[in-house]
Amino acid sequence: MYVVLSIVASLLIVVIFKLLQKFEVNTFQTIVVNYIVAFVFGIIANQNYMGVTEVVASEWFWGSVLVGSMFIGLFTLMAWTAQKNGLSVVSVASKMSVVIPIIAGMFLYQESAGYQKLIGIVLALISVYLVSIKSKTSVNFKKNLAWPLLLFFGSGLSDTYINHLQNTSISEENVILFSACVFGFAGVIGILILAVKKLKNDIQLDKKSLIGGLVLGLANYASLYFIIKSLQVPQMESSTFFTINNVAIVMLSTLIGLWAFKEHLTKKNWMGIGLALIAIYLVTFA
After folding, report:
1. Side-chain-side CA neighbours of residue 220 (13 Å)
2. pTM
3. Residue 23 carries which DSSP code?
4. Euclidean distance between CA atoms 269 and 192, whole angstroms
5. How far apart are CA 100 and CA 118, in angstroms?
6. DSSP 174
7. How far apart are CA 191 and CA 183, in angstroms?
8. pLDDT score at 24
9. For residues 14 and 259, is the Cβ–Cβ distance under 8 A?
10. Rounded to whole angstroms, how far apart are CA atoms 181 and 43?
11. Which residue in 214, 216, 174, 237 sits closest to 3, CA to CA?
């Protein structure tokens, strides 16, 4: 159930971003508002009261600072990569990065690696690539190679580090507070960036971003919360979770794009969706 809910929350994020683009809402401002909303929601939902001193002294505190910095840093990196290499490269680099937490789970936590699971993981990576390639776009990884590589490793290390924290320092009762701190630090950094841009008159504040940020914040909070809860399930291996979660999101978001936003799918996209279904089956029942 946690895995399903994490996929649903992530799909909602994808849909919200598509709507932001459609209604021409300032994405970065929406992201900043979203982090603030997610932080406030986490604080309200938290029932395990801890004083500021206790929070700072907790094992996961500095981890939450780093993850929060990663979140807003990766968003900025995605924007730069899109400008330099195009949206298809952003999609492929960020989605293919799932291979990093999968490999880390197998080597660091001695997770299972049978033939069926390995075949499923390979098919999952191929499916992610095929589904991410949109029609009438050229994917040029050689051009400005540094940006896609940074995005690839940054996205993969972010997921890997979250998994490491839940394995070493985040207890079940602290999931809500940890999530709130992550979004809080990301929000603080975002506000500072907006303040600097405003002082330089580089931006015009967009009121529509408040509404978008409110909805996105709740979905974003739910996504992180359910990812951590999924990883905490005793029988759930991180290599299995990240494969199923990532492939399902890519496949279903593509189908939502086809149905709700009238996007065109190529033969490669449909082939990727077919491979995604096979990969999910193989990894789930390995």
Report:
1. 30
2. 0.89
3. T
4. 40
5. 14
6. G
7. 12
8. 86
9. no
10. 9
11. 237
| DSSP output for 52-86 | HHHHHHSTTHHHHHHHHHHHHHHHHHHHHHHHHH-
Separation of alpha carbons 103 and 108, rounded Å: 8
Instruction: State how far the Cα of 85 lies from the Cα of 26, in Å rounded to an integer.
Output: 21
Whether residue 218 contacts residue 74, with contact meaning beta carbons closer than 8 Å, is answered with: no
Q: Which of 21, 68, 14 is nearest to 180 (CA)?
A: 68
Token readout for 83 is 């400008």
| Residue 24, phi-psi category: left (phi > 0), alpha (psi -120 to 50), beta (remainder) | left
Length of the chain equals 286
Separation CA 152–CA 4 (nearest Å) = 25
Is 175 strand, coil or helix? helix
Please give the chain's pLDDT, 286 residues, in tens: 999 999 999 999 988 988 888 888 888 999 999 999 999 999 999 888 888 899 999 999 999 999 999 999 998 888 788 777 776 777 788 888 889 999 999 888 888 888 999 999 999 999 988 888 766 555 555 566 788 889 899 999 999 999 999 999 999 889 999 999 999 999 999 999 999 988 888 778 888 899 999 999 999 999 999 999 999 998 889 999 999 999 999 899 888 888 888 888 889 889 999 999 999 999 988 7
Sign of the Cα pseudo-torsion (93, 253, 70, 144, in order): positive
Side chain identity at 127, as an amino acid letter? S
The residue assigned the tokens 């159930």 is 1
Identity of residue 119: I
219: which 2 tokens? 């979905």
